[in-house]
Amino acid sequence: MKNYSSDRAMHFTESVIREMTRVCLKHQGVNLAQGFPDFPASEKIKEAAVRAIRSDFNQYAITWGTSSLRQAIADKFAWYNGITTDPEKEITVCCGSTEAMIASLMAIVNPGEEVIVFEPFYENYGPDTILCGSQPRFVTLQEPDWYFDEKELTKAFNNKTKAIVINTPNNPTGKVFSREELQFIADLCLKWGVVAVTDEIYEHILYDGAQHISIASLPGMRDQTITINSISKTYSLTGWRVGWAIASEHLTALIRKVHDFLTVGAPHPLQEGAASALRIDRGFYHTLAEEYRERRDFLLQALEEVGFKAYRPKGAYYIMTEVCHFGFPDDEKFAFHLVEKIGIATVPGSSFYNHPSLGATKIRFCFPKKMETLKQAAEKLKKLEKQGWVAGANEL
Length: 396
Ligand SMILES: Cc1ncc(COP(=O)(O)O)c(C=O)c1O
Description:
By secondary structure, the chain is an alpha/beta fold. 41% of the residues lie in helices and 16% in strands. The termini are far apart.
């Protein structure tokens, strides 16, 4: 019998995060696995999309995005990230940042070339590097502050390196890369002619005075960076599937070609809604960060009270925890116990690592949820103690 599987598809597994959501539905648990909000999006933004459907924005948009959305992206990128762009030539609207990432990597990486990825990493980056035929090189972010070893990173660059994937604020660690760290990466990119592909979808979710810096704003990096973003996290619209890649005219021409043949385009009426989201009153971003800080603090306390050792995130909406002291054989067994016996879905830490053993003592929780959902989760977590799974609390 002929083997119908491609080597590419056999090289990675199904998404553990999305699998945990399905297991959670089966057990009717609280989903602290997949990062999507359970609270409503802004009425004003939803109305803009409804208006667009009623006004018959129902056919294909321009492949690389409607001009109103590209203009809104350029305006916001200028005020928030400090970088001016030409929306006619330097922006490609895609189906979420997920498509923007794979389209960007496919546009610039040849089979056999190398892509550097920091681990732990957002699950998609592993398969992305495989799908574009590259050889991924992993550089570990080390606890407790998730710093990278400069020597290790320097050694990862060579003549075959084509791109480095950065994600700041970071999923799953909550790390926010500092200006000094980004400058160190930028210097290596400039030295080796490497493109920084940076996923900045949590750029507005920052805590404790952390500041978001786009590597594209550092000297010399504007034309050597692809900046990826989407409406998913900032505006709580993960299901609309609208994202974008911002890059030089040369790189954009390549990304637009790949994007066209991957998906043709993102949903037209939702692009109109997205344009209105990006023009929202600026006070929105302050409230967003403040509400997430409250949720973070609540979940941190609830986790610590029952013995999790938590890494305090500086950005994004995830908490990585250490769990080996609970006595489970590994992270997957613990995650399945949590969803099946406690009623909370989480993500086993190993799924964020190329070397699964590095994450085998970790569990990730997400908190883009109503306070009432988080309170329910906190109550359920207390069952761990009742079941005899007790450990000393400690914040890392
Ligand atoms: C770092 C990161 N990038 C991308 C995505 C997916 O974003 P989008 O909905 O824009 O495709 C996620 C979702 O959790 C994420 O955490």
